[in-house]
Every structure is written in structure tokens, then in C-alpha cells.
Amino acid sequence: MRKREEYHHLSSQDMLAFASPCCRVHTSSTCHTLLSELEQIWKDIGETEADKESMILELERECLEVYRRKVEEAANAKACLHQAVAAKEAEIATLMAALGQLNINSLIPPEKKSASLKEQLALITPLADDLRVKKDERLKQFADIKTQIDKITSEIAGYSNIVNAVSSLNLEDHDLSMRNLSEYQSHLRALQKEKSERIQKVVDCVNEVHSLCGVLGLDFDKTVSDVHPSLHETSLGQSTNISTSALECLDQAIFRLNTERKVRYQKLKDVSGLLFELWALMDTTREEKSKLSRITSILRLSESDVKEPGALSLEVIHQVSTEVERLNKLKASRMKELVMKRRAELEDICNKNHIEPDPSTSADKSSAMIDSGLVDPCELLANIEAQINKAKDEALSRKDIMDRIEWWLSACEEENWLEDYNQDYRRYSGGRGAHINLKRAEQARIKVTKIPVVVNTLISKTLAWENGKQKLFLYDGVRLVSILEDYKMVRQQKEETKKRARDQKKLQDMLLSEKGTVFGSKPSPRRSSSFKKANGYHANGNGSVTPSPRRNSIPCATPDLLTPHSNSMRQNGYFKEMRRLSTAPLNFVAMAKEDTVSFSSISGSEPESPPQC
């Protein structure tokens, strides 16, 4: 009996070993009470000691089974807790690796190592939840960035479908680090920059197409829609096409429009050139020209500067072409008048430059040929135009020599005036205007002295011109060198005649002086009253002498035919007169005295200089 009590006492102690102190006290007292009651019941029943021992052993086995089951359950719970903690740690490690956080110890507090499993699980569970939230946010960021990248890439490539960004990230969700996110963001910024540049380029191209369509008068909507409809207007869900193919199409469209603008500008320029020529030929009034003043303003600009809407439209070119056709028809009816007008212009150019015009297109011949229908008026007009151009070119090449001829003729005119002035016996009087005549006389003497040098220079330059052009230099149909040689010969004959006259006068003076010595008286020189009228001067109210524009009839070395006041040099009769002067004897009765006084001290101005030789 004592053995059962000891055993029973030990079993109760083992059962209460795992319980808390207060629970163990209460359980122990309860077990003792129950055993006491059980023994009393067995005693009352009359159970044998063996039965009692057997029932106590059964009770002990049942208690051990309960303990064993509870231990197993506790071990399983511990294993589950170990597995949960390990799973959480593995999840945390995976999440941190995906998020790029490699140091896991920085997130787990140090007291975790000494804490129980439930405490450890309670510590790492929020951390795992936070990392899952971060991963979801990071995935969302990657998905947004990837969506934008795919969208921009598809716009640049010209694709309409966008790849699902989330599904494309499934293969890459193991790397959700900030480094990878930064690379995606950098790639996105580069694509956004490229997209912005492409959009700006598309806008610039579309604006240029709009400007060109306006200048050419084309339909902008149709033109740009042929490239891509989105370039004109963007509907819901449709973005502007910025693909490489769209940009290439825009560049090609701009190139075609620029080429068309060049072609139309050149065509308008050609047609307008014909129009301007017809205006000049037809003497079109300013009112009629004002109807097409817009064309003139357009052609003043270069082809690239034409920006006015409709400036190079087909309507404008058709308008100018219609006007050209109208004027061509009108020109055909007025061709004879135009031919006569251009022939008169040719003759005017030739007369001004002392060139003989082509006699094959003279006014009489041209009129007869047009009336008879032997020649096309347009061809005749073109022939006269060519003769005009040729005459202008020749006049330009003769300009230097013609300028020297003008100076020579002016010097000859001054020489004639000086001879008239030297024959005036009152030229030294102190009347009004006398000092002006004295000054002019001094300048005329200096100018006359340069005539031989100028004539020789003219001859040399004329010969050089003839050698260069391989033809004669004709002045009103006569060779200029022949005129100058005849002039030199006549001038030399005149100088010799004047010298003989001076010698004869000196001899007469000596005879008169000797005669006066014999008879004791000296005759006074005679003065002809008729000489006052023939000398080309007239007296004014105070007795002074002023030159008269009337020419003297006394012959000199330069005939009147070569002076600017006479047109007779243009007649071939001049050369007959030149030959007559070179062979006929001169009248010495009216010849003036050559003993003149120099007035260089009176005159202070320099005379006109000849052209540089």
C-alpha cells in the first residue's frame, strides 16, 4: 500500500513538473483528494490489493500516454515554428536580394537570437510584410516605366500594339534593385528626349509642308494625310506618328514640294521674262502693268524667299501665260510698227556713235519685206535686236576714242574762236567782259597747243583698235585715220602758209619803213571798216567787245564740218571739202596777225586738259 502511495506520489509530481507553480499546487491537492476517494471506494468495494495495483498501473499508463501525446504535439509545434521562422527568413532574404538589399543583419534586431521561436516569428513577420509591400511598389514602378518604354519604342518603331509590361517583367523580377530601376529610368529619359526631338522635327516638317502648300496653292490636308493621317489630326487613342518611316515620308514630301516650287518659280520667271519683253515692245501702259504687279513683286525675291500664299500656284502661272498669249497675238498685228520702232532705235544708237547702220534692215526695205511677206516679222525683229546689241557693244568699245574725238572737236572750235578773237583790234580794251575773253583766249591757246599730241594719240589708239577688232574704225562711214591724216596735212599746210604770210608782212613793213625814210613821213596802218563785222565780235554799250556765236567765213585748219555745232560731218561731202582745203590757196588778205601777247599773268585758272594719252 505504501508502495502505491509512493508511486502515486511520484507520478503526480512528474505530471505537475511542467505546470506553473500555482497550477501545480492546485493539481497536487486535487490528485490527493481523488486518490483518497478512490481508495475509500476500493475499500468499500473490497478490491484486492492486486486489483488495486493493476488499476493504479493502468492509470499510470494512461497518464504517460497523455504526457507523450502532449510532448509530441509540443515538438510538432516547435518544428512548425522553426519552419515558419526559416520560411520567413528565406522570404526576407529573397525579397532583399530582389530589392538589392544584401545585408539582412541590418534589418533583424540583435535580440532575435536570444528570443523564443514565437518571438522570433513575431519579429520577422512584419519585416517580411514590409518587404513584400516594397516589392509590390517596386514592381509597379518597373511596370510603369516598362509600359512607357514600350509605348515610346512602339511609337518610334511605328507599331500600334504595346507589349504587356508586367508579363515582360516576370523574367526579370529577380532584379528589382534601385540600380536596375535607375537604368530603366535613364533609358526612359533617353527615349523621352528622343521622342521630344522627333515630335519637334515632325512639327517643323509639318509646318514647312503647310508653308510650301500655301505657296504652291495645294491642299494641305490631302498632302499631309498622304504621309500619315495622324500628322493632320489625332483622334482618341491615336498618337502622332513619330516613326522613322513617317519622318522619311515627310522629308520626301518636303523634297517633292521644294522641287515643285523650283520648277514653278523657273516657269513663272521664264513666262514673266517673255511678258516683260512684250510689255517693252508693246509700250504697255502702267495701268495695264499694275494688273500683274504681284508677279513683279514675286520675281524681285529669290526662289527660297517666296513665302506669300498662292504666289506660285498654277492659277498665277496660268494668268501670266494667258497674258503672254494675248500680247503675242497683239504683237503679231503690230509687228511692223515694232520693227520700225526698233530700227529707229538702232539708227539713233548708230548716229550717236557715228556708226553706219546695217542697210539691209533699213526702214524702207523692212517695210517692203513685211508688206510683201518675204520675211517673217519676228525673224526681222530678232535680226534688228541682234544689230542693236552689236551696235551697243561696238559703241562701248569705241567710247575711249569717241571721248578723245569730242575733245579734239572742242579744241578745234576753240581754235576757230581764238583766230576770230586775234583779228579783233579792240580785244585789249578795258570794257566790261574783256577780262573774260582774255582768260578764255589764254586757255584756248594752251588747249590748241595740245591738239597735235591728241591727234597723234588718236591715230595710235585707232590703229590699235583696228588691229584688235580686225576691221577699220569708221566715223560716219569714213575711216577715222584718213580723217586725222588729212587734218594733219591741212594743218601743216596752214602753218607753212602762215609762216610765209608773216615773212611777207615783215618784208612789206621793211619796204614801208625804207619808203618813209626817203620821203620823211611814216604812213599809219590802215584799218578796214568792214573787218569789224566779219571778225565775229560786237561792241556792247560801254565799248567792250564780246564774242558772237556766229562763225567766221575765214578758212582755217579745222573745217566747220567737224565742229559740234554742225551736222555736215555726217555727210561724205566733208572729205571733198577737206581735199579742197588742202589744195586751194588761202586768202591772206583777211589773215590775222600772229603777233599776240600772252595773258598768262592775267588769267589765273588752268585750261581744260585733253584726255590722258
From TrEMBL:
Q: Per the annotation, which location comes first and is thus the protein's main one?
A: cytoplasm
Q: Name one GO molecular function term.
A: microtubule binding
Where does the record place it?
Answer: Cytoplasm, Cytoskeleton; Nucleus
Provide ranges: composition bias, Polar residues.
Answer: 541-551
| The UniProt record lists the keyword Cytoplasm | yes
Q: Where is this region: Disordered?
A: 512-569
Gene Ontology CC annotations of this record? cytoplasm; microtubule; nucleus; spindle
**Bias (Low complexity):** 521-533
UniProt keywords (A-Z) are: Cytoplasm, Cytoskeleton, Microtubule, Nucleus, Phosphoprotein
> Which Gene3D superfamilies does the entry link to?
1.20.58.1520
Assigned protein family: Belongs to the MAP65/ASE1 family.
User: Which PANTHER family does the entry mention?
Assistant: 65-KDA MICROTUBULE-ASSOCIATED PROTEIN 6-LIKE ISOFORM X1, PROTEIN REGULATOR OF CYTOKINESIS 1 PRC1-RELATED
Protein name per Swiss-Prot or TrEMBL = 65-kDa microtubule-associated protein 6
Taxonomic source organism: Nicotiana attenuata
